[in-house]
Amino acid sequence: PVLALSLLLAVGSLVGYSRSPNNKSINALLMAVTGFFIGGPSNMISSAISADLGRQGLIQGSSEALATVTGNCDGTGSIGAAVGQYLVSLIQDNLGWMWVFYFFILMTSCTILFISPLIVREISSLTQRRQARILSE
Questions:
Q1: Residue 54: its pLDDT value, please?
Q2: Per the confidence metrics, is the pTM higher than 0.85?
C-alpha cells in the first residue's frame, strides 16, 4: 500500500512537473519531489524482489545463490535504466519534451498496474489479520 501510494504521488508529481513554469527554483523543487516518489519505490521493489527470491527453497542457505539473485535484480535494473536513457533522448528528439513526460507517466502507471495483484493481496492480508485480531478480543 505504501508503494502504491508513492507511485500514485509520483504520477501526480510528473504531471505537475510537465506543466511547471520555466523557473529554476520550481524546477529544482519538483525534480526533488518527483525523484523522492520514484526513487523510494524503485529501491523498495528491488530489495523486496531480492528478499522474496532469497526465501525460495533452492536458494536458502546458499550465500552464493542469494548474491547471484541480488546481482541479477540490480543488473536488470541497471540495464533498464540505460535503455530508458536512450529512449528519453530518442523520444525528446523526435516528439519533444512533453512526450518524455508522457513516457515517464506511462511507465510509472504500468508499474502500478503490474504490482496491483501484490497490492490487493497485501491489503487483503492486512484486512484478514485485523479482523482476526478484533474477533480474538
A1: 66
A2: no
